[in-house]
Design brief:
mainly alpha
Length: 137
């Protein structure tokens, strides 16, 4: 629903300067097509939608390489949502504190990914230096 989308965008952008909403959809088929052809960092997804449910939308994707946050009015799908590795499951109307915790969690994951990548690169460089010394001797 466009009203819910607009409210979520407003709250996201007011909470974090790092968040940039690039696309929104009220048609789940169009959203699925976009996700198939574009990269996405985070997807805020409803469950009950026209055409495809949120779970059907996800099932139609080859790869899910983005963080996933469900935003829905239905609490009975929470277990299924977490089976899809959801970062969080927000119930409508979304409470500001719950959204803030979700954004904090997303930002921590993003920072952790960068730190983890830096550590992997550093480890590979050290390993390469050690192998080069061994070959030289």
């Amino acid at each position: 629903e466009q009203e819910n989308i607009d409210l979520l965008i407003w709250e996201l952008q007011n909470y974090s300067e790092k968040i940039k909403v690039t696309h929104t959809f009220t048609n789940s088929v169009e959203a699925q097509e976009h996700l198939r052809n574009n990269t996405t960092d985070v997807l805020f997804l409803d469950i009950e939608m026209p055409y495809l449910s949120g779970f059907e939308l996800l099932a139609g994707l080859n790869h899910i390489e983005f963080d996933l946050v469900f935003v829905t009015a239905y609490n009975q799908y929470a277990i299924e949502a977490f089976k899809h590795n959801a970062i969080n499951y927000l119930l409508k109307p979304v409470l500001q504190d719950d959204l803030k915790r979700t954004i904090d969690r997303l930002e921590a994951r993003s920072a952790g990914s960068n730190n983890e990548l830096d550590l992997r690169i550093e480890s590979l460089l050290k390993q390469n230096q050690t192998e080069n010394k061994t070959v030289s001797q």
